[in-house]
Amino acid sequence: MNLIVAVDNNWGIGFKDHLLFRIHEDLKRFRALTIGKTVILGRRTLMTFPGCRPLEKRMNIVMTRDKHFRAEPAWICHSLEQLGRFLYNIPDDGIFVIGGASIYEQFLPYCRTAYVTRIEQSAEADRYFPDLDRQDGWSLISCQDYISLDAQIEGRDEQVELQYSFCVYEQEKPRRLFL
Q: Per residue in 125-162, pLDDT tens?
């Protein structure tokens, strides 16, 4: 299983149910890595998508405790056991955890690879991702540095220049979600 996330200098990922930054190249990378794959996300993350609609060209699985929640054409799961039935025949490398914070926390122990966009700036955040540089069992495998001249800080209209890195981390011994 994989995960993909964008973090600031403090491993912040969101503020008031919005991303901290919008970097065109990061969004392209997200699409390229997840297209044709299965994505696992929380209900509140889905509500931040345009039109509150599932992502196109991916199998969306929304984790929620709300038994009445619907989001066609997404699959809705209320437990790990139910999720196991959806994921049973899907190879681990075809699954991406895409957020939010509680979903990342729940699934981090089961992920082998983390695609992390590290943004070299701090922003006001109320949701965080665990610092993988300090997590036992996680190792930085690769990191490529970039500069975006047309990034946007969430909630502001102006474009800004941001330095960021596309990093890949691997967990040495991820837990098996389903035996």
A: 999 999 999 999 999 999 999 998 888 887 777 788 99
Mean pLDDT (the chain, rounded): 94
Q: Decide if domain 2-171 falls under CATH 3.40.50.300.
A: no
What's the residue count for the chain? 179
pTM of the model: 0.94
User: How would you classify the pairing of strands 18-19 and 95-99?
Assistant: unpaired
Side chain identity, residue 154: E
Name the β-bridge partners of 33: none
How many angstroms separate the CA atoms of 144 and 108, rounded?
23
Q: Is 27 helix (H, G, I), strand (E, B) or coil?
A: helix
* Assigned token pair, 135: 């997590």
For residue 137, give the DSSP letter. T
Q: How many CB atoms lie within 10 A of CB 2?
A: 21
Q: Could you state, in order of their start, the residue ranges of all structural domains in the chain?
A: 2-171
Helix and strand element counts for the chain (H, E): 4, 12
Residues 109, 130: Cα–Cα separation, whole Å: 11
Helix (H, G, I), strand (E, B) or coil at 106: helix
